[in-house]
Design goal:
102 residues; mainly alpha; Transposase
Length: 102
Amino acid sequence: MKRLKKAASLLWQGKIEETIALISPLKNERAENFCRYLEIHRHRIVNYNYYQQEEICSIASGAVESTVKQIDRRLKISGAQWNEENIPQVLKHRCAYLNNSL
């Protein structure tokens, strides 16, 4: 249990290598699967501690879920015609606009 709490703390700080080093010596299927998951998804694991300390943005999923619902509603507007291939480009431009990087 102590090792799991340490792993959670390391992941909260975005320390993937340290977490793998902590868990990999356990040599059981669950530990190996977890380490493999960390290796594959390391680019998606965020340093939440940094974001929280810097007050950069909310780390809760509610804001993301709300945005997804809003985008979904816009894509289903009556009379609108969307080409599925163009949606990522539209979202890219929207993000650039919101980030003042246009």
